[in-house]
Amino acid sequence: MHSSHTLAIAAIFALGAPVLAQHGPPADLTTLSRGADRVVVARVMHVDPVYQTNEFGDRLIISRTRLHIDAVLKGGREADGDSVVLELEGGTIGDITLDVSDLPTLERGERAVVFLRKNGRGAVVPHGRGEGILKLDSSDRVKGKPLTLSAVRQAVERAR
After folding, report:
1. How far is CA 46 from its chain centroid?
2. Can you give the three-state secondary structure of the chain, one letter per residue?
3. Nearest by Cα to 152 from 115, 107, 108
4. Domain limits of the chain?
């Protein structure tokens, strides 16, 4: 095949992919929804980094993140307006920072859709690690993805 034809075909696929992605939520939202105990839309109220030893004996910085629940999309243990403490690996204590490559940091005031589950110690953690935290911008769009809160809500409802 001639190189200009190959380039044209590659361009069609490259341009078509973002358009296709905008028509519906990614398939992994279904998997995340089904595997999570709860799915909430929440605002970060407080972050408290502490040292904690994990199940492997490693001493890590864990950010205990208090979330104010704006809406419950799955699981009814908390009502809208309640709060939950989410434990995230990573954070800063003094001049020591632990960055975890597959987990985002959450800061006070940020909003996100969070897929929650309990770990072996009974602490609430994001299901799917970083994939289970979808940060929202001020217009309820998922940051960095062609996805809206409304589309996420619909995907969670369909996964039930």
Report:
1. 17
2. CCHHHHHHHHHHHHHHHHHHHHCCCCCHHHHHHHHCCEEEEEEEEEEEEEEEECCCCCEEEEEEEEEEEEEEEECCCCCCCCEEEEEEECEEECCEEECCCCCCCCCCCCEEEEEEEECCCCCEEECCHHHHEEEECCCCEECCCCCEHHHHHHHHHHHC
3. 115
4. 27-159
In the structure encoding, which two tokens stand for residue 79, read together?
A: 């009502």
Architecture of domain 27-159: Beta Barrel (2.40)
CA dihedral angle for residue 141, residue 62, residue 64, residue 149, rounded to 10 degrees:
10
For the stretch 35-89, pLDDT in tens is: 999 999 999 999 999 999 987 899 999 999 999 999 999 997 555 679 999 999 9
pTM above 0.70, yes or no: yes
pLDDT (tens digit, 9 = 90+) per residue, 126-158?
999 999 999 999 999 999 999 999 999 999 999
Both tokens of 75, joined, read 């699981």
CA distance 58 to 60: 6
User: Length of the chain, please?
Assistant: 160
